[in-house]
Write a structure and sequence with these properties.
CATH class: Alpha Beta
Number of helices: 3
Strand content: 25-35%
CATH topology: Nuclear Transport Factor 2, Chain: A
Order of helices and strands: HHEEHEEEE
CATH architecture: Roll
Shape: elongated
Strand order of the largest sheet: 2-1-6-5-4-3
Number of strands: 6
Distance between the termini: 58 Å
């Protein structure tokens, strides 16, 4: 860093070396951030795919796709204003709930928003959708909600629906 050059004052030598060190440190930090971003992307890749597949299967009401990534100890909760309205404990209870009129999870045509919050094993996503309305003259407003997924062993073991 310091080439065999004599400086007129210690302060001049300090400034020259600090500028050189700053360049080296900034390059190292940039490389560190790039590696950290790649590592984070690699960690989040599989959970994102699992959740996207579930939402796509939900939008197309593909039962095979819905249950493909669900774990054996699956729990579903539908919350409104932080109170549990509907709860299904187990895959069989969730399947019965899907076919009942109480749950309208698969009739909303969700669009995933760009905000994903990763606190593994929990992943929270924002969704937007148009609510289904029986009145054809009145155009419904777009609604926003969030769905929290609990992942365990590359399977979804819990869903908290706040949409």
């Amino acid at each position: 860093i310091l080439k065999g050059k004599l400086y007129k004052s210690p302060l001049e030598a300090f400034h020259y070396s600090s500028f050189k060190m700053a360049e080296v440190v900034e390059d190292d930090f940039r490389i560190y951030l790039e590696n950290k971003k790649k590592e984070t992307r690699e960690i989040q890749k599989l959970p994102r795919k699992i959740i996207r597949d579930f939402i796509n299967a939900c939008n197309s009401f593909d039962e095979v796709g819905l249950f493909k990534n669900l774990g054996e100890k699956f729990v579903y909760e539908k919350r409104m204003n932080w109170k549990v309205i509907i709860e299904a404990d187990g895959l069989d209870a969730f399947k019965k709930l899907l076919h009942s009129q109480d749950l309208q999870l698969c009739n909303k045509n969700f669009k995933i928003r760009s905000s994903w919050v990763f606190n593994l094993p929990r992943v929270t996503i924002g969704v937007k959708y148009y609510p289904t309305s029986s009145d054809t003259d009145k155009q419904p407003f777009q609604k926003y909600g969030q769905i929290e997924f609990l992942l365990e062993g590359n399977k979804i073991v819990g869903i908290i629906d706040e949409s």
